[in-house]
């Protein structure tokens, strides 16, 4: 990686403190970088801590959350920055959020034009009605939102157009880092492809993109690198081509996740993920893992690209592509 | 047979969502219905599950034309169909613990006495652990809640299953796990399946045959 990272996350942990002294370890020791012009896809099952990680970066965690570690965006540490800095200088200006379920993100009683003009007025120096109107239309065009639909309300838009409206809002402040949280949930395949292609275009324009998703096909289409999260930990961080193609993933969980795809063996990973409030001391995946041994009672360190005591050797794992496994 | 004959349905008689739909699912057969977002496939699934009254045409269940829909559907017809929806959060009463959620069809049909045993059996089938059964929907993940919704759909041992985008919100592993539960159930009971969705790869892998929306209905 020769690029200078825009976002540099080191040992980020998020804990929720619950009544009765209970503690939920939602994110543990996450470390990764995202550079300008690069897309990192953070993938994993629902409930594994992906969205909490995104909230932590935006300073939007609930009051009972405690964070540790660092998340440097340039010279600013997002985890220790105060609310005033985050509200006035970070959200929208240095980090643009492309939300999950855009239709719910938009205000139902206002038109898309009014959303975008308000955002323009707040985030840019544009003053005056005519100038603001023009800036809003330019922002719409950047996200390929058709101008003819600007005066519509959110419920009058299809899922794909609502997504573009939300993307337009995220782009208004010209934030160098885009954070997309499950931007394709519930969209059909064509719309997923269009949405991720549009996001990719913004990456190629020089934005850095952290995309959080459980949609492996979308991740494969857009990502340069892939981080796999399991039970709050990043267990594998790999080049997207190597991960989805050859030699394939090295962590048994990543392999299981890919093998579960209907175009592969369509076999689920056995069992359920552990409760984040009651994580084992050792490898959290061991109870579901067919490679587990006594060594897995200790927490595997993150070495090279993977956190596992028994990673799949890089040279034999090309067998993962073969579809002869028909157990499904 | 589960048959839709010349069904026209929608939410406004002057502007139906689709017209003249024909679809047949044979006993033991798995049919995948493929269509893009907003084409009306969920409405069709609701009609097939007797949850929405069509404006015209008829639904024929094992040779018997269906005379009433929703709460007017005769119990012996209604209970032969199990339904799983796309969004488990919207399909689950937030006040019920998962165990009560799964037991609801049993209680509603006077099987209260045997409910506890049957719920334990169903939970095991769909892979829910006992500690999850005591929780309410907001305390479990989407995948876990959808497992409970599938268990609820199987509670009365339906001869027909209607799955409307059952896995659209779920990750790959949970998707594969739930499809396997459905297929194991069908293998042991011979139930027929109508699975509605937009994921061609998934439905082709899952179903005996897939039909494109254009071949089923006119818009």
TrEMBL record, chain B:
<dbReference type="InterPro" id="IPR027417">
    <property type="entry name" value="P-loop_NTPase"/>
</dbReference>
<dbReference type="GO" id="GO:0005524">
    <property type="term" value="F:ATP binding"/>
</dbReference>
<feature type="domain" description="ABC transporter">
    <location>
        <begin position="2"/>
        <end position="218"/>
    </location>
</feature>
<dbReference type="InterPro" id="IPR003439">
    <property type="entry name" value="ABC_transporter-like_ATP-bd"/>
</dbReference>
<dbReference type="InterPro" id="IPR050319">
    <property type="entry name" value="ABC_transp_ATP-bind"/>
</dbReference>
<protein>
    <submittedName>
        <fullName>ABC transporter ATP-binding protein</fullName>
    </submittedName>
</protein>
<dbReference type="Pfam" id="PF00005">
    <property type="entry name" value="ABC_tran"/>
</dbReference>
<keyword id="KW-0067">ATP-binding</keyword>
<comment type="similarity">
    <text>Belongs to the ABC transporter superfamily.</text>
</comment>
<dbReference type="InterPro" id="IPR003593">
    <property type="entry name" value="AAA+_ATPase"/>
</dbReference>
<keyword id="KW-0547">Nucleotide-binding</keyword>
<keyword id="KW-0813">Transport</keyword>
């Amino acid at each position: 990686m020769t690029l200078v990272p825009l976002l540099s996350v080191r040992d980020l942990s998020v804990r929720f403190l619950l009544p009765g002294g209970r503690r939920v370890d939602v994110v543990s020791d996450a470390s990764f970088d995202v550079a300008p012009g690069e897309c990192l896809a953070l993938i994993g099952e629902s409930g594994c801590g992906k969205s909490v990680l995104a909230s932590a970066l935006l300073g939007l965690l609930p009051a009972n959350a405690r964070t540790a570690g660092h998340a440097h965006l340039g010279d600013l540490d997002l985890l220790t920055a105060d609310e005033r800095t985050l509200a006035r200088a970070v959200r929208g200006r240095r980090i643009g959020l492309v939300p999950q379920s855009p239709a719910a993100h938009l205000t139902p009683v206002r038109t898309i034009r009014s959303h975008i003009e308000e955002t323009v007025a707040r985030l840019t120096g544009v003053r005056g009605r005519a100038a603001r109107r023009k800036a809003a239309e330019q922002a719409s065009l950047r996200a390929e939102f058709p101008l003819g639909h600007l005066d519509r309300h959110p419920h009058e838009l299809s899922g794909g157009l609502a997504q573009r409206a939300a993307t337009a809002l995220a782009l208004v402040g010209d934030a160098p880092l885009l954070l997309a949280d499950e931007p394709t949930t519930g969209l059909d395949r064509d719309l997923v492809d269009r949405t991720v292609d549009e996001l990719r275009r913004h990456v190629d324009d020089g934005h850095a993109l952290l995309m959080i998703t459980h949609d492996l096909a979308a991740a494969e289409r857009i990502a340069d690198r892939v981080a796999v999260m399991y039970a709050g930990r990043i267990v594998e961080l790999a080049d997207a081509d190597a991960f989805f193609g050859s030699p394939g993933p090295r962590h048994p969980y990543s392999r299981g996740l890919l093998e579960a795809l209907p175009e592969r063996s369509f076999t689920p990973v056995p069992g359920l993920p552990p409760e984040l409030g009651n994580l084992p001391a050792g490898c959290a995946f061991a109870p579901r893992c067919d490679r587990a041994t006594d060594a897995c009672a200790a927490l595997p360190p993150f070495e090279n690209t993977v956190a596992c005591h028994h990673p799949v050797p890089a040279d034999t794992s090309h067998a993962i592509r073969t579809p002869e496994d028909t157990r499904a | 047979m589960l048959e839709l004959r010349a069904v026209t349905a929608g939410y406004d008689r002057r502007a139906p969502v689709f017209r003249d739909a024909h679809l047949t699912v044979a006993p033991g057969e798995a049919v995948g219905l493929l269509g893009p977002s907003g084409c009306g496939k969920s409405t069709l699934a609701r009609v097939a599950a007797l949850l929405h009254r069509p404006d015209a045409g008829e639904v024929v269940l094992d040779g018997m034309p269906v005379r009433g829909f929703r709460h007017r559907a005769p119990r012996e017809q209604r209970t032969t169909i199990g339904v799983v929806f796309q969004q488990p959060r919207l399909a689950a009463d937030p006040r019920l613990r998962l165990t009560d959620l799964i037991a609801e069809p049993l209680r509603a049909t006077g099987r209260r006495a045997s409910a506890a045993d049957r719920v334990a059996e169903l939970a095991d089938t769909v892979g829910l652990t006992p500690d999850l059964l005591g929780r309410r929907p907001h305390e479990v993940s989407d995948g876990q809640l959808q497992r409970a919704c599938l268990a609820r759909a199987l509670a009365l041992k339906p001869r027909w299953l209607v799955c409307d985008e059952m896995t659209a919100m779920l990750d790959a592993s949970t998707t594969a796990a739930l499809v396997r539960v459905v297929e194991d159930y069908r293998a042991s009971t011979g139930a027929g399946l109508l699975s509605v969705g937009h994921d061609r790869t998934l439905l082709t892998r899952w179903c005996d045959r897939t039909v494109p929306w254009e071949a089923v209905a006119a818009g």
